[in-house]
Amino acid sequence: MLRVALTGGIATGKSYVLARVAARGVPTVDADAVVHDLLATSADVAAEIARRFGAGMLAAGGGVDRKALGALIFGDAAARADLEAILHPRAYLRIEAWASACARDGAPWGLADIPLLYETGRERDFDRVVVAACPPDEQVRRVVARDGVTEADARARLSAQWPIAWKAGRAADVVDTGGTFAETDRQVDELCRRLDALSGGAPGARG
Fold first, then answer.
1. Is the pLDDT score of 25 beyond 70?
2. What ranges do the domains of the chain cover?
3. What is the pTM of this model?
4. Closest Cα partner for 207 from 4, 26, 19?
5. Of 77, 139, 196, 206, whose Cβ has the fewest other Cβ atoms within 10 Å?
C-alpha cells in the first residue's frame, strides 16, 4: 500500500482535504483524533501525564482534562515538549497499525493527516507527502474567524509553527486551498487520480 501523509499549518484546510479524500472511499486517519482518543482512553497516557504535570490534569470521569492541560502547556515550550514526548510515539504506533490494517485489506493507498509531520521528523515513514497550503494572511484571517482570537494572537500561533512555504517546498504534492472550494476540489480530484495511478489502484475517481 502507498502510504501518503497530509500535513500543512494551522487553518490551511487539511481537514477539508482529508474529508474530500475520504468521501472517495480512500482510507484515512487523523492524527489529532488519535491524540484525543489517547488522552480520553489510555490509562498509560493518563498515568504519565499525572506523573509529569500533576494529578490535577486528570478528568473526574477518567482520562485527561484537555482544557486544563492545554492551559498549563500554553506558552511553556519545555512542558509542551514533555507532553509531545508522551503522546507522539504512541500516536505513531496507532497510525502504523492503521496503515498495516489498510494494507491487509488490500487498499491501494491511504492518507494520514499529521499536522506536525515535519516537526517530528517522521516524513520518511511515508512514501509521499501532500501539503495543504494557503497564504499566511489567509491563515490569519481564518484563525480569527474560526477561533474568535485577535489578529495578533493568530499571528503568534502561526509564528510557533514551521513556515508553510518551507513545508510546501519539500512535499511531493501541494493542494492550494487559498482559492474557492471548487478550485480546491479540482486539485483534490487530480491528486486522487495521481495517487490511484501511482499505487496501481483503480484509475480515476472512486464512486
1. yes
2. 1-27+109-207, 32-106
3. 0.92
4. 26
5. 77
